[in-house]
Amino acid sequence: GFQILKQEGNKASLTADGKTSFLTIEQPENVTPKPRRATGIYHFALLFSKRSDLANMIFQLVRHNIEIGAGDHKVSEAIYIADPDGNEIEIAYDNDPADWKWEQGEVELAVDPLNFEEILAEGNQQAPWNGLPTDTILGHIHLYISDLEESEKFYTEGLGYDVVGRYGEQALFISTGQYHHHIALNTWMGVGAPTPAEHSVGLKSYTIVLEDDETRKTVIKQLEKVGATVIEENGFFVTHDPSMNKIILAI
Fold this sequence. Notes:
Blueprint: E1 3-8, E2 11-15, E3 21-26, E4 40-48, H1 51-63, E5 69-72, E6 76-82, E7 88-94, E8 102-103, E9 106-107, H2 116-120, E10 137-144, H3 148-158, E11 162-167, E12 171-175, E13 183-186, E14 206-209, H4 213-225, E15 230-233, E16 236-240, E17 246-250
Parallel strand pairs: 4-7, 10-13, 14-17
Antiparallel strand pairs: 1-2, 2-3, 4-10, 5-6, 6-7, 8-9, 11-12, 12-13, 15-16, 16-17
């Protein structure tokens, strides 16, 4: 349901509203398949503002015989698909934040069965499919990492996120503004998992958009204080987390 905003060579920027892009896909030269065990992207999440939009997306996927996974996370309802290269995509709708349960700064998360019958009742199976809703946003990303402790320090003390959830010593959920999570981190590929090859399928980079230049300068100082390197690259400031996931710091 994306539209192509801009395409040149082996790269296409995709949009939901016809104006801005939050997802770019690229085919590298000499591309290799997504590795079975490596750091990088687990999934990214498209976030809808209406439950009926999630229902209509399910109808659309079923029409195209696309396999769907699902979960009720208490804070959100989500389905999961994979693109032809094995990149996973979550498509979600947030429940009312007033109903999220918090305890000592952490939000309650779960992976319960999704009530498809209730959700689909809010959609319209006969309505024509008009693509993604124009107010679709990138809700969060979930990354495979190699070391949880190092990553927690980088993302909290360096980038300034707050920890809002933990799954033992395997996964961490972080956000700003008391959201259930903007970024999730896990070691499910194994502690010490290797970095994928440069031209393999998967995550090339993701962008964090900061409020202004002063905020970015502050974040850069924090990152350097925890031992991270920040470089200027083609007019952008770029850093890498301890698992070598590339991050662009934009304003």
